[in-house]
Each structure stands twice: as C-alpha cells, then as structure tokens.
Amino acid sequence: MYGSEDPLLSVNRREDWQILGAEPFVSIKNISKSFNGVPLIRDVSISVFKNELFSLLGCSGCGKTTLLRILAGFDKPSSGKIIIDGIDVTDVPVFKRPVNMMFQSYALFPHLTVYDNIAFGLKQDKLSKTSIADKIGEIIKLTNLTGLEKRMPDQLSGGQKQRVALARSLVKRPKLLLLDEPMAALDKSLREQTQFELVNIQERIGITFILVTHDQEEAMTMSSRMAIMEEGKIKQIGAPHDVYEFPNSKFVAEFVGRVNFFDGIVLEHQLDQILIESNEIGCFCNATHAGAVPVGTRVTCAVRPEKIMISTLRPAYPRNWVKGVIKEIAYLGHISTYHVLLNSGKVVVVTLPNLLRLDDRNFQWEDEVYLFWRSENSMVLTV
Q1: What angle do CA 176, 182, 188 make, to 5 degrees?
Q2: What CATH number has the domain spanning 14-98+174-250?
Q3: Residue 189: CB atoms within 10 Å
Q4: Residue 10 — pLDDT band, cuts 50, 70, 90?
C-alpha cells in the first residue's frame, strides 16, 4: 500500500463508477464499424469513468482491438461518437487527442537508449532539457527502471522492455492510456508479477486505462470493470466478481472460466429459489439468484468446477447431487481437476485444492463418488 504522502496517489478508482449519476470520463456512444460491408463493431456503447482500469475481453476477431484503434483515432467509426473528458473527439486526428497507446510489440526505437526512448515524445514537444530530465526522472522511478537509462533495447529483458514502453506512454501524462495486449510477450510468472505492478502504477499516477486482452485471468486480476465482447457486440459489462459469479449468458459463463452446464426445465418457485429438473444429470437442482423465470421455461443450470464438492458418502439432502465415477485426474500443483462420468454419459469437471500430498489424495481413478453443491452456486441461464 502507498501512503498518503505519495504525491502521485490518486483517488481509488472504484468510486466513480459506483456513484449513481456520476459523469463518464470516456463515452463510447453507439459505435459501429464496417469494412468492405462486413460489420466489425455493432452499435457498441460503453461508459468508462475517471481513474478506472477498464478491460475489453474477448477472443480473436471479436472487435476489441478495432474498438481500441477507434478510441486512439487510428480508425474512424462508420457511425457513433467518442467523447473524452466532455469533448467529442470522433473527428479529432490522432496527434491532437489526449490519448496515448501502448502497443503489443512495444515499438521501442532500437537505436535509442532507454532514456531517449522515453524522452522522444517530450523532445518532439520541444520541452526544455531540465523539464525533460525532471519528467523522465519521475517516470523512471515510478516504473522501476532506475539504473537502466543508458541501456539499448536489445540489452533489456522482456519485462524491462514492457516497462520502458509503459514509461514512454505515461511520461506525457495523457488523459487516457490504451493498452493493446501489453503482456502477451511475457512468460507466465513475469506476466503475473507485471499485472500487479501495472495496477499499482495506474492507481498512483491517476490516469484512466483501457486494456484489451484475450486473457481472462489478466482481465479478472487487473480490472475495476470489464466488457465481454463477441462478434463485435458487448455481451456483458461488470466488475470481475459480478461477471464471474453472475454471467448473463452461456457464452459469458464459459468465456470467463470453466463451467459445467446442466440443461433442464423449471418446475416450481420456492421462496427465493427455483426448482429445476434435469434429465441430463438425473437430479433436481435448487438455484437462487435466478430472477423471474416462469415455470416450464427451459434453462441451463451452470456450476463452476471449484464450487462442486466430492464425497464417497451419499449426501443426506435430496437435491443438487449426482453420482458418478472418476475417469480422469489432472494434477496441476495447487489444484487437481477431476473428470467424473455420470450414468447419463455426461462428464462433470470438478477442481479441488491440493491440501494433502499427492500420495495421500482421497480420490483415485475409477472411484465411485458423489458430487454435490450449494443452491447459491447454481447459476440459471436462459440464453
């Protein structure tokens, strides 16, 4: 945590988007984009608030990078508006927008030192040497590049190159920083470390970030909110916890994590729960947080693998359990994944933390087991 004496400390980014009636800092209004008659972006509207770290998440070709390029001004929308800090910038050229972009490739100048790479934009603005030195000294310290100022890009590690690109993007203090898959070139351990570094820098410097990624863990770790995109449309916007725990469709549920789907029919409402009959797994499912789903509606009951428990003993209660046989076990260090075959032929995936040494594991291949879960962990999806 950073103390209040830190001059770069900004307001917690959670606040603005949680305040009813707060003005968005970036408004993407009904943006559409077509290329040769093929729609790439379809009537997208998003509000991003000041100091927020907002992620656009989706698979390749969903339109997220095209939307980022429209924000930056590299591409013009076919229709719609882009408003940043109250100003319509839809027709404003790239070099006049209060926006900077950090590219996936980092795009460092190979013939310039770290210092000169970072200073390039400031020199273009014809700032004095003293002003440039002050700004670079501040950003070098912030991005943990002290001692690397005289190195050339080919003398840097992947993580160091990433920080140089970030420093160059931030040194001019843009109102909005766009990041296009900024950690795609890093290995897993360095990527995880860099995610937290980037969030801390964003909180300290107080600039609004919009991040494009296809990495669900990256978006979940870093974002205040995120938008899930598919085929040029927004499927859901929300805080990572809300999108993960309360997806609004099968696509979102499956995209942001592993999930088991059980198809069934709503039989009745019981106070704050609904009762679902699923012939697919041969059991009745209780589910909460289902909303207004009429009796007789065909629905999908979704349960995350980590929400399911395994036992060799039959549960005492009559619902939310099934019986099967363990057919596959994948050991992943911190967790193990179990593939359990039901009598219906359906395979249910369960993940359990490895609290015991491998030799002391409670469940083995071909064990007959019972799977059970709590009703509040059943997500009811109608699309």
Answers
A1: 145
A2: 3.40.50.300
A3: 8
A4: very low
For the chain, domain boundaries:
14-98+174-250, 260-381
Pairing between β-strand 26-35 and β-strand 79-84 as defined by DSSP bridges: antiparallel
Q: How far is residue 357's CA from residue 256's CA, in Å, rounded to a whole number?
A: 30
**CB 55 within 8 Å of CB 82:** no
Going by C-beta distance under 8 Å and a sequence separation of 6 or more, which residues neighbour residue 354?
331, 333, 334, 335, 336, 361
pLDDT at 5: 38
Buried b (16+ CB within 10 A) or exposed e, 148-184: bbeeebeebeebbbbbbbbbbbbbbebbbbbbbbbbe
* CA nearest to 28, candidates 43, 13, 10: 43
The amino acid present at 156, given as its one-letter code, is L
Q: Is 373:262 a contact under the CB 8 Å cutoff?
A: no
**pTM for this structure?**
0.86
**Residue 302 clears pLDDT 60, i.e. is over it:** yes
On the question of a common fold for 14-98+174-250 and 260-381, the answer reads: no
Q: What is the pLDDT of residues 200-229, one digit of tens each?
A: 888 888 899 999 998 898 899 899 999 999
How would you write the chain as a 3-class SS string? CCCCCCCCCCCCCHHHHHCCCCCCCEEEEEEEEEECCEEEEEEEEEEECCCCEEEEECCCCCCHHHHHHHHHCCCCCCEEEEEECCEECCCCCHHHCCEEEECCCCCCCCCCCHHHHHHHHHHHCCCCHHHHHHHHHHHHHHCCCCCCCCCCHHHCCHHHHHHHHHHHHHCCCCCEEEEECCCCCCCHHHHHHHHHHHHHHHHHHCCEEEEEECCHHHHHHHCCEEEEEECCEEEEEECHHHHHHCCCCHHHHHHCCCCEEEEEEEEEEECCEEEEEECCCCEEEEEECCCCCCCCCEEEEEECHHHCEEECCCCCCCCCEEEEEEEEEEECCCEEEEEEEECCCCEEEEEEECCCCHHHCCCCCCCEEEEECCHHHCEEECC
What is the CATH number that goes with domain 260-381?
Answer: 2.40.50.140
